Amino acid sequence: MQSKHWPLFDKYPALQNALNPIALCDLPTSVEPMPQLGEHAWVKRDDQTHSVYGGNKTRKFEFIAADIQRKNAKHIVTLGGTGTNHGVATAVICDQLGLKSTVLTFDQPASDHVDHNQKLMRQYGANVIYAGSILKAGIRYYLNPLRLNKDYYFLPGGGATPVATFAYINAAFELKQQIDKGECPEPAEIYVPVGSSSTLAGLTLGCAMAGIQSKIVGIQVLGSHVGPVETCTTGVSDRFMKQAVSQIKKSYPDFSITLPTVILNPNWYAPGYGVFTKEAEAAIKTGKECGLTLEHTYSGKAFDAFCKAVKQTNKPIMYWATYSSSPTKHDE
Q: What pTM was computed for the model?
């Protein structure tokens, strides 16, 4: 299964024994041209990672679920905005694996997308608890007395854990295989939305490890801090990359790499998390014409950045689609 599903392990086989991920996704995801935007536009279809609920969160769960099983946990507690895509992915995967789930939610502007995800989380068995502000949700999550109960596994928002970073290191090796097979050109730039940072960290480090020269451009869609705590900064991605390197060194003591520079563009975050913008609305419509499902919080803003970049380049660039376009119970 390695070369098709986890090409990272073809080069670093000892990591498979250390991480022992669970095959949950339909991989590799395809790379496709977007002629509607011009000859240089490409997309990586991680919106189709899973037949029920795709996206980047589900790809991460291959590595997170293995950690959950190692710890013999029975109930997953996580947090996110009221319309959290990560909360839906958590509910879907917990339902698939026979685990219980609780999602603590914080304020996000109301929308059809938020209502849709609220229904999905509950339909897949999640206990959804509204906690108020992001600060209140964070306090309720980090100071939860259930942390003393070994049956509970506390999963940070966005599935942003050190092991989850390996999902996108592997994804970079997956892209390298597709480039080498001639399925797409090597992109000059790859655009990806960034909230909890592990996807950006994994792609940035993974491309460096795989020998891909692409510049990974993260589009910030979450505030940089909650109080004094960093939530979406280049420093967060740096820490994830350093933790991944430390994990690799446990299996390969001679492994050495110069950490690549993290690029995080904050220009699309304003006026705030999940807040509608006319530019994102236009990008969502453009994405639909290209066969992509997008939303206002993450993917619409990142796709707007990508569309603007396409108009200014004569080199191939890629949008990494991270929002699910897969069918769900609520869609049926």
A: 0.96
